Every structure is written in C-alpha cells, then in structure tokens.
UniProtKB/TrEMBL annotation:
<protein>
    <submittedName>
        <fullName>Iron complex transport system ATP-binding protein</fullName>
    </submittedName>
</protein>
<dbReference type="GO" id="GO:0005524">
    <property type="term" value="F:ATP binding"/>
</dbReference>
<keyword id="KW-0472">Membrane</keyword>
<dbReference type="InterPro" id="IPR003593">
    <property type="entry name" value="AAA+_ATPase"/>
</dbReference>
<dbReference type="InterPro" id="IPR027417">
    <property type="entry name" value="P-loop_NTPase"/>
</dbReference>
<keyword id="KW-0813">Transport</keyword>
<keyword id="KW-1003">Cell membrane</keyword>
<comment type="function">
    <text>Part of the ABC transporter complex HmuTUV involved in hemin import. Responsible for energy coupling to the transport system.</text>
</comment>
<keyword id="KW-0547">Nucleotide-binding</keyword>
<keyword id="KW-0067">ATP-binding</keyword>
<keyword id="KW-1278">Translocase</keyword>
<dbReference type="Pfam" id="PF00005">
    <property type="entry name" value="ABC_tran"/>
</dbReference>
<feature type="domain" description="ABC transporter">
    <location>
        <begin position="9"/>
        <end position="243"/>
    </location>
</feature>
<dbReference type="InterPro" id="IPR017871">
    <property type="entry name" value="ABC_transporter-like_CS"/>
</dbReference>
<dbReference type="InterPro" id="IPR003439">
    <property type="entry name" value="ABC_transporter-like_ATP-bd"/>
</dbReference>
C-alpha cells in the first residue's frame, strides 16, 4: 500500500442493497487526493450505507471498492484501519474514560500495542487542539455534550491519520460557528492531500466548503465539482422541494421552499 495511487477511493460498478431494496446500482466514482466530497440526499437514500460500505464495514452486493489501488475486500482490518477511518453518526460509550484516552485509541492501528509513545500522546493532544477541545483532555468522556463528543470522534480520526476520512454527518451536532470550523478543517485536510467524504444535510455548507458533491436520489445521482452539482434543478429533483438561488457576499446560497 505504499506506492502512490491516483485514487484514494474508487467504486467500480458498486451496487448496495438493504433487504430487497436496491439503494445504489452501478456506481462508478473516484475520490482523489485533495478532494473533499459531500454526499447529499434525502433521509434514507443511502448516504450512511454508502460510507459504511466504502469503509468495508457493510456488504457491497456487486462491484468492488479499491482503497489506494488495492481491492478493499483483500485488505485485513488492520490494513484498512491504517488507511481509512470512519466517523459514525452516533457515538456509543459504555465506559468512563478521559477524553485523551479515547483520542489515543486512534493511534493503536499504527503501533499495535496499547502503550502509547510520547509521540502518540503529542499527536492526540494536537488532534484535540485542531477540533478546539484541548481544554477537555482530562474530562470524562461520559460527561461531554453531544457536539463535544462528536468532535472527540473527529479528533480520534485525526490521530488515526488515515489517507481517507469517511464522516457520517460530522456537522449534525455542531453549532453554526463549530460547523464553519469543522468544514474548514475538513477542507484543509483535503488540501493537504487526504481524501475526505462527508455526508451532510446542509446544502449551503456543502456548496461552500466541499470541492465535490455526490447528490443521491431515487434512481438518479449527480457527481462532480460542488459548484456544478449544487444547482436548483438537480437539488429540486433530489429533494422534491423548490430551491431559490441567492447570491450574497460572493457566495451562492440555496433557500428551500415548499412546492407550490
Ligand atoms: N440493516 C438494515 N435493514 C433494513 N433496512 C436498512 C438497514 N440499514 C439501513 N436500512 C435502510 O436503508 C435505507 C438507507 O439508510 P441510510 O442510513 O444509509 O440512509 P441515509 O441516507 O444515511 O439517511 P439519513 O439522512 O436519515 O441519515 C433506509 O431506508 C434504512 O431504513
């Protein structure tokens, strides 16, 4: 997995199914270094399923995924964990532990032992700083707010330091200022050569921060540069409501309106 690959993630004719329902059929899609993709679409359209399948944690019914040019199915869990990380939509904590310990868990994949080195500790602290939570390093994980807990999850992924970041609704528990910081952080990660894929319900955040958008709808999808995909016609087809496009401060905003 050391040779440079032109794609960090590649879907080749991927089909995803839950029960008898086909969510996606014949998806050909590539994530290159430097790209920040937002996956948009209605509730239940298959965004989480897509992220979990790309992470190798959910079955792919046809086609295959390649991670850094290698078939995902052929990689061991340890190899996968060194090259891709997934932020779940919900974090479930059974035990008390200091926040820094949760972040240090991200380093485990790189040394295989539970004893963190001084460098691991420095990287974990730096990851907490990047998500604005260094003051909570010693706090009990179980005492955090929903937004703080979600950012600890992202810090753990940053400590894991993978090539591909898969994030399921990373902004869902964040206040508006934290959303801007988080989307800026994801864009910076991509600009540094990582591949970032995040599901999102905020079209305006996606169109402002993502380099690319994958817009999913029943039996249809659009993929490409964010400014090309975030257009009223495609958004209306995908979400089933009207959109008015408003230009403000040099940015395009999309205002959803009920259908007449
Ligand atoms: N294990 C399962 N068994 C049956 N159906 C499932 C299973 N997992 C997911 N589904 C269904 O698959 C569909 C896609 O779910 P998914 O969570 O991927 O949607 P989503 O686009 O992420 O939705 P949301 O925006 O609400 O998070 C949903 O209709 C869901 O009910």
């Amino acid at each position: 997995m050391s040779a440079p690959a032109s794609f960090i993630l590649q879907a080749q004719q991927v089909s995803l199914q839950v029960g008898s329902r086909i969510l996606l059929e014949g998806l050909d899609w590539q994530v290159r270094p430097g790209e920040f993709w937002c996956v948009l679409g209605r509730n239940g359209i298959g965004k989480s399923t897509l992220l979990h399948a790309a992470a190798g944690l959910q079955p792919t019914h046809a086609g295959q995924w390649q991670l850094l040019g290698q078939p995902l199915q052929g990689l061991s869990p340890a190899e996968m964990a060194r090259h891709r990380g997934l932020l779940l939509q919900q974090q479930h904590d059974a035990f008390s532990m200091p926040v820094i310990e949760a972040v240090l868990a991200g380093r485990f994949v790189h040394h295989g032992g539970w004893q963190p080195s001084t460098q691991d500790e420095a990287l974990a602290l730096e990851a907490l700083e990047r998500v604005g939570l260094s003051s909570l390093a010693a706090a009990d994980l179980l005492t955090l707010s929903g937004g703080e807990r979600q950012r600890v999850g992202l810090a753990t992924l940053l400590a894991q330091d993978t090539d591909l970041y898969l994030l399921d609704e990373p902004t869902s528990h964040q206040d508006v200022a934290a959303q801007l910081q988080l989307m800026t952080l994801l864009r910076t990660l991509a600009a540094g050569g990582k591949g970032v894929v995040a599901s999102c319900h905020d079209i305006n955040l996606a169109s402002r921060f993502a380099t690319h958008v994958l817009l999913l709808a029943e039996g249809q999808r659009w993929a490409g540069p964010a400014q090309e995909i975030c257009r009223p016609a495609a958004l209306e087809a995908a979400f089933g409501c009207r959109f008015v496009q408003v230009a403000t401060d040099g940015m395009l905003q999309f205002l959803p309106l009920p259908t007449a």
